[in-house]
C-alpha cells in the first residue's frame, strides 16, 4: 500500500510539473524572445493586406502592433491559409491569430478565444445595376461567398456563433446556387462583371463591401438588410491559459481607452468596437 501511495505521489508530481511547464509556454517564449509571430491574412483589405511596398497594413495589422507595443515586444506576421489559421494545433509556429475570426462552437474545440475586439455586420452586395431591392429578390439566385468563412456557414444555414448575448441568426434567403471563392475579393471580381453574369449577389462583411465600393467596384449594399452581426476575436493556441488571459486583458484595455474605436474608425469609417 505504501508503495502504491508513493507511486501515486510521484505521478502527481510529474503531472503537476508538466502542467506548470505548459501553463506559461507561449507567454514565456514571447517574453524571452521579446518578439511574437501573428498569423493573419495577406489579401483581405482593409483588414490586412500587402500594400504597394509589399508591407503588411490594415486594421488587423494595427491591432497586432498595438498588442505587441503593450507587451513590449516586436511583432512579425505569417499568412497561413484560413483553415490553418483557425484550426489550432499551431505547434508554436504562431503566438497569436489576428485575422477577424468569428467565434463558433466548432472553433472553440480547437482554439482559444482571447477576446472580442470588434463586431462586423454582414451585408448583401449586388451589382449597381441590379434590380434587387430586398433579400426576397435574391431567392433562387446565384450567391457568392468566401469559402471556410461564416458567410459560407450562413448561406448553408449552419452558422453557430459562440458568444453570449447575441440574438439567434435568422435565415431569410433561399439561394438557387452557392459559389465559393478562396479569397475575400474574388466574389466581388465576379460580381463586378454585371448583374447575373456570374453572380447575383455576394454576402460579405460590411467593411469589405465598403472597401470594394471605395476602390471603384460597381456594386452596392442592400440597405437595411444585414444578414447577421458577428463578433470577431483574437485567437490563440490551446496550450497556455496565462497567455490567453494576458492578451485578453490588453484587448479589454484597448477597448476601454478608445484605441479599438479609433482603429475601426480609421480603417472602416465608423466605430465597430462597441459591445
TrEMBL record:
<feature type="domain" description="Solute-binding protein family 3/N-terminal">
    <location>
        <begin position="35"/>
        <end position="271"/>
    </location>
</feature>
<protein>
    <submittedName>
        <fullName>Transporter substrate-binding domain-containing protein</fullName>
    </submittedName>
</protein>
<keyword id="KW-0614">Plasmid</keyword>
<dbReference type="InterPro" id="IPR001638">
    <property type="entry name" value="Solute-binding_3/MltF_N"/>
</dbReference>
<feature type="signal peptide">
    <location>
        <begin position="1"/>
        <end position="23"/>
    </location>
</feature>
<keyword id="KW-0732">Signal</keyword>
<dbReference type="Pfam" id="PF00497">
    <property type="entry name" value="SBP_bac_3"/>
</dbReference>
